[in-house]
């Protein structure tokens, strides 16, 4: 065992992978209640599911033309994840059932009954039971606005009509058969007049709301034809959440209600897709390893390489996108793989690495066709290498051979694929109309300055705001070029071509996402540019100010990533679009983005010009606002006045913009898989146990890897050892805080 631990500690690349993956896995989300984050992720998942699960492959047959839009890379990667998730999806507990002693009662939606004038509230409720002979009935329910009712007060009555016409009634009393749903809320607990019977479960998505159950035995059995519930009070409400009757012989029948809360199909889809983000977590963790390997190939120390890999993994948008289901993480890793293989060829002179590099960039193009813009960069780098090594005339000739090897996968595979596509699918539909037509739509229409300024410095999507570490790494470009010559082409040219291309795209910001999504593949290259600066910092013990500046910048860079992983980005965007945009002139573009609005106003997801260009509506401020409200909701759940005050202090109101959202609480909620499962499956202890086991396992893995990495980063003095202990203790404290949030649910 000791030798195994020692072997792991001697492998920094493995430590980086384990550390990054465990962090990413802990912070994975559920995305729109398990529905994912993106259109390309949805397409990839559905294609993988159709190929692996559906015997008829219906989605694959009907939607194959969209391969021309999104590519085959991500669906291919997701195949094993969907296959491994299928047994779990089929055996997972049903989210909209409450397990009781003999039967899991189905949760359904009945109309509320009561004495209030609320929407849909009635005085009587027909339970619409199926005629039959029954010996037991279970009713799952809760009351509302009932804190003033004394213990045992009969608020409703169940009437059962037998085939003979005889009517049997049963009382529903607060504190006995049912109770106030918000019984434990501080403001309710202080005034409530009845006791709380043992709850049978908590509400889906609201761990502070309770369900209660009442069971009646029929001896002798009753031959029932109908049943109804009548409300008896002039105030308060009563809600039937589930109904189950046992027929003579032991068979249970659920009440129909007016619609299921969560169907079995939805439940299976939820557990199938829950595992999809794991793919990007693994892919991004591997990208951090490649950053480490590339920096080492460039001649930097192990210490410097580890620091840069960690900065990339946690201090850039790589972290949020490790949890999303976009294709950018896969493209990023494939581009890094291509660069690393070319650098390996440079050191070994073995041409097979050039072919492997060509295969990697080919896979990147298959994942996102726009990745083809990186090919000229690789061809140029090979030309510069050969010209510098052999002279420009001889180098030109030798570079042609290497460039043909790099392009070999394209030359060998693309014609064959096009031929097969022409035979199997409609070639003109698939490529001429979809691929070429797609390239013509939304490109080269936007004024260059609008897109360029938006990508780099706009308040809502500027890459510098979402990745502040670039403020230190990008200025080091001249230093990097002097040191690395032709090799610097990868790290400078790839970001440049991406920025130049997407500056002309109509939707330059990448649609609804976190930060400038299209620039995610450029981030590792831009971070590596800072290698000379970080090496200088480590080599010069007197540069304390530089070290402090770097440490502060890294810490600041982590903040936008924490904001991105803590919440689903659609939460704030939906609040803005549905509750704020219509209340301000030009959907808010009067405060910024008016020049871009002719394009933003025609986008199907909505007009987000103000979110993109106006600091008042920046998602960074929006997430800070909602996270503050989330903190209040978790730390002081009983103080609804505190929560209301936090939600009322919108970012734009601080700048004099008067637009009050009607229901800002719609944006509340932390987007972590562990919290989502905890809230949704509180009725199933086995799920909670597995969540705790997996979460603690990931945390021990992350902490162990972090200890190993800090030993390699702080290696010189007693001060360094003190810093290592501080780093380990700080990380352990963060894990404890993360676990504490779960208990606060």
Describe this entry's structure for a reader.
The protein has 745 residues and is an alpha+beta fold. The protein is 56% helix and 11% strand. The strands form two sheets. Strands 3, 4, 5, 6, 7, 8, 9, 10 and 11 form a nine-stranded antiparallel beta sheet that branches. The chain has a two-stranded antiparallel ribbon with strand order 1-2. A hairpin with a 4-residue loop joins strand 1 and strand 2. Helix 25 crosses helix 29 (619-635). It is elongated and about 105 Å long. It starts with a helix and ends with a helix.
By CATH reckoning, the class of one domain would read Mainly Beta
User: What assembly state would you assign to the polypeptide chains in this entry?
Assistant: single chain
Q: How many β strands by DSSP? A: 11
Amino- and carboxy-terminal Cα gap = 38 Å
What is the rounded Rg?
30 Å
What's the pLDDT, averaged over the residues? 89
**Roughly what fraction of the amino acids lie in strands?**
5-15%
**Which stretches are poorly predicted, pLDDT < 50 over at least 5 residues?**
1-5
**Main sheet specs:** 9 strands, antiparallel
Structural shape: elongated
Class derived from helix and strand content: alpha+beta
Helix content: 55-70%
CATH domain fold name of one domain: Jelly Rolls
- The helix tally amounts to 33
Reported CATH architecture of one domain? Sandwich
Secondary structure topology:
Layout: H1 2-9, H2 12-26, H3 31-34, H4 39-52, H5 58-63, H6 67-70, H7 73-91, E1 97-99, E2 104-106, E3 113-114, E4 124-126, E5 132-144, E6 154-162, E7 167-173, H8 186-189, E8 201-203, E9 206-231, E10 237-247, E11 252-254, H9 264-273, H10 277-297, H11 302-315, H12 318-323, H13 328-348, H14 352-367, H15 375-390, H16 392-424, H17 427-440, H18 448-457, H19 463-466, H20 470-473, H21 477-484, H22 488-502, H23 523-528, H24 531-539, H25 544-566, H26 569-580, H27 597-600, H28 609-613, H29 619-635, H30 640-648, H31 673-680, H32 685-713, H33 718-744
Antiparallel strand pairs: 1-2, 3-10, 4-9, 5-9, 5-10, 6-7, 6-9, 8-9, 10-11
